[in-house]
Amino acid sequence: MKKVVLLSKSLVAYLGLLSQASSMDWKHFDLRQLEQFAKFKAGVESFSKIGFNNKPINTNKGLYPTETFVTIVGYLQMDLPEIMPKAARANGHHMSGSLGGFGGGLLYDGTKDTINQVTGKPYGSMAWNYFGYWGGLVGQKPWAQCWYGAGGGSQASYAGKSAAQLQAMSNATSIGGVNTADCVQGYANNTRNYVIYNAYIDYSYKNIFRFRGGRYESPADYMSGYTQGLDMTLNLNHFKFWWFSCFGRGFAYNEWLYNFYSPKTYTLADGKKINPGVHAFYITWEYKGFSVVPFVYFSPNNEYSPCFTLMYDSNPKFKGIGWRSQTDITVLNPFYAKRFWDTYQFGMISHRNAHSLMIKQRFDYNNYNFGGGIYQNFGNANWMIGYHGSRLGFDFWDNTVYANTINSLSYMMDSNAFTAFLFGGGVYKKWLWGLIGRLTYGPRADEQVFAFNLGYEFSKRFYADIKVEYYNQIMRHGYKIGWNGPFLPDQPATDQDRSHIFTEIKVKL
């Protein structure tokens, strides 16, 4: 927050200098003068997820419902489209900035009274996983010192355990001496339902160099949401060089609201947690629709991921008329720090390194599109890089909030899981529609999903959409939701309904 305040003061100070240069009379300043160089945005939005499976929780059997919740949010943003003097602009220098705040609350939380049949008591509210999570920048807050998911840790720690012992460990309702329900409720009682999501300066020189710093919506494929950090771009003929550094991640959307937190942490020998950040470096070569993009993501003492993307675009200047074909092949190759080798991460064993392959093909014809692809994991490839973002182009956070004991991540991100998907959509006048179907086959779970989305733009200020999704999930023998440790020989397979409806309403003021 100190960085945001300093950046905001810098914006005000710079505007003051510009105003002096243009002889603006601040003694008689009013909003109309400010609107000469600033643009304001404000709005109110609401999101709802309605789960069809409303059965009670049974932590011993690994049975969980699909959550229902409703949000209401509002935002106010001031954009400075151009704050460079006219003489500087004439020489190719441009600078813009923005300052925006976002906040809201839950109109309904269907998770807070859900009973755990094992204890006969409420499991605890879980809506904070979507809306309001806050444990401190590096998870240093007292309530963030516990976790409610059983299992995890090193593979060696389970050596010699019998099937009955493993099953008993998976049934635990007290972890590390803390009752699971109390741990869950601790997060729910300490939410932070607001965030300064925009506070940045964006400088560019012609089409050669660009620097952006502060808080802004992340442009990184594998760091979605809003970032707190910087990125720089250098264009040289057919080459583009791009650097990205993130020291905080946040969400400011009608479904997701997180104040900024460190996406990766590291604990020093003295027990102090630090924020090493997540960094990326891209080199892009483009020629006649072909793109070759080697890139690397890394977080010191956590991971190092050399990756690459190959793309072909048959019509790079496509503007909704005619035919276009786009091919995207992306490979991730994360290498993990030694302390993560042979440990359970997101319920699957993780070794020294892993890989994932995405092949995606999209076709556009006028206002319509269709295509498909595959996503194959070789080892546990997504728990460090893949779950922060993706080039897939569709939502894979549509599982139950209890899945993997982290948000609602689909099991398509599991170790060695294979997914095939097809999609289509288009725009007709003020109607927007889309559909997607996917089949996932994994060691832990199989999933069958079909979703249809329909949106309508009533006016420039009012938009609404709805998504109806059929989602069947088959947990294989030996695995259960809520358990992040090794295979359980005594755990039977389960078939659970994850179908739901999303609705969204957006009003611009």
UniProtKB/TrEMBL annotation:
One Pfam family from the record: HP_OMP_2
List the InterPro entries.
Put_OMP
Supply the name of the protein: Outer membrane protein HofF
What is the organism of origin for this protein? Helicobacter gastrofelis
In the UniProt record, the gene name given for this protein reads hofF
